[in-house]
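The following record pairs a protein chain with its ligand, zinc ion.
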Amino acid sequence: MIIDLYELLSEEGRNKDVVARFESEKFNTNKKSYPVKDSNIHFSFTNTGKKNVAFKCDGFVTLMIPCDRCLEPVDYKIDIDYFEDLDMNKTSEEKIAELDEHFFMDGTKFDTEVFISNEILVNLPMKVLCSENCKGICNRCGANLNMGSCKCDSAGQDPRMSKILDIFNQFKEV
Ligand SMILES: [Zn+2]
Ligand SMILES: [Zn+2]
């Protein structure tokens, strides 16, 4: 969603409140893609005078991220809580020079999708587990061991076999 702050800037003290969702069906990083299950984000902009805008944002996005061990999708809620004073006097050249460039702003237009994407990215966990006790998948037959044990004997792994498994795992990660 694009929120235009042009009218807000015409009058000091003026406020603009918008509730938006993350509109994409999937959140994509350069390596992975996670389905978006739910989202609700409240944006609040207040004209504090002299073309300054107090910007506040809070809400959440829930992504479905595969468990690091068993690969079952896990609902992972990312909380968004953000506050910043936006100085609308600065030209884009000044912003680049001061490393204050906001990709979610284009003139007076605020792009909620770009802003939320960035917040998800900085809050994305390294790994997600369905449970602390997740038993993972059998690395021989691929069975989900949370559903019960498989026929392979995972307790006593043959050292000759683990060499082969290393090679197998290399291929799996590609
Ligand atoms: Zn798991
Ligand atoms: Zn197995």
